[in-house]
Model the fold of this input.
Amino acid sequence: MPVPNVRSPQDSIAKTAGKVTKRLLTLIVLALLAYHFTGYPAIRRPRPDRTLSPWLAERPIESLLVIAPHPDDETLGCAGVIMYALDQGARVCVALITNGDGSSVPAHTSGKGPLLAPSRYISLGNRRQNETLAALTSLGLEPEDVCFLGYPDGGVSALWSDFWDYSDLFRSQYTKANMSPYSNSFTPNAPYCGLSVVNDICSIIRTFNPSHILLPHPNDTHPDHWGTFALVTYALQRLVCEQELQNPPEMLAYLIHRGDWPVPRLYSPRWPLDPPNTVLRLRAADEWAYQPLTNEDRAQKRQAILEHKSQTAMMRMYMLSFVRSNELFAVLRSPVIAQLPSHQSRSSASRDSHWQTAEPTIWDPQGDTLTRLVSGGADLQAVYAATGNGMLYIMAKPKGRPSDNVRYVLDISDFGNPRTQISVSYGPKQSVRTSSSSNLNPDDVQIRRTVDGIEFAIPLTLFQTDRGTGTTAPSAVLLAIHSAMIGDIVVDRTGWTVLRLSEDQPDIFR
Done:
């Protein structure tokens, strides 16, 4: 007869202790990850002497243009400033790039017809327009102060990168339209291409003549937001180059989407709205400007946010987390590219020496998602830029050594009309792609891997000659770098940045 397996009390205690230990370790790991990726509580706060508060006092506000990718962004990021500007007697205009018609869950409750039918999404777009008008009316604006451009929700970055001119239009996956189906769009039947957006923005800026423009932050992770930044920046630079702006507006950027921000994601009106910790840890962080909100301002902003009922039904606490003791704006810059002596630009060894001592042109936040944290080769750290012998040199440095499993992609555009855009990648699926007017031979672009990063060398003659100046090189370019891994999944992306090719060129953001 087999002997029964009888456990001693000590065995039961040891097993229970083992389970408790595993659960405790799991909780500790989860707590550490939550601390790292949310930044709560804040590790470091900005020093008061390094911020401008209130920032609008630096330059008298006469007219404020708020450009928002979706209905509700203008309320989340800029409601307090809108109220402040109106109190100062300034004119205020709000321009909505899309109608936010791509939210599937709210679309189910909008309109009639089969689920996910285009008519339901269009009904949602109309509903979100009405919500925005209600929110902005509660802040003091009139309906005529708001214009809806009607471009595709979820497609703004594609209009910038892939569907630029009228010969190839983007088709919305939601409304199935390639032109605006909304009767009140700023341009009736607006074609879904980047150039159409730019023309609308240029027209609004010419007519309204803003002294200040608020636009999405270039490091916002939502493609519609960074796509809006790129399109607005292109439009403003084009107006400056064509000498259509005597006094370029002051431009500041507001942030809505980052995985680690804002914290806490609760209604905490007494808390300050501080920059994300991953951005604060940059060695060359942007200046941040604080616009203080009174108790009455906060109550009014809360009420305006709650007017966006289709959105607060799904993410009420997230949206109310923008009701704080201040609103936050980044002071934008367009850095000047270094110029290399002739002998140094010809020698790769000399350029390597330059990259070792040069200051980065662009800093990028690090370790702000789990994927970037565990794949150092895909986590971009900094970008360096220099010109010499008619070449533009761009060095992309990841946090770790460059990886053979990562594709590094440089996207660069000039401000010509027509535009030249070049996309160059190194790594798996290495390629060179151009759009618009460039007659690029792939052999013209030189790419090499170094110990620290990937260097791209592009002839400046590929870009547009500046109109009216007779020069053979652009005054500035707009660029971003992203890294991608398996299945072309983007792991990290730098913010789109305007780089000036000489100190003689004006900084459009100042």
Notes: DSSP finds 13 helices and 19 strands in the chain. The mean pLDDT is 85.
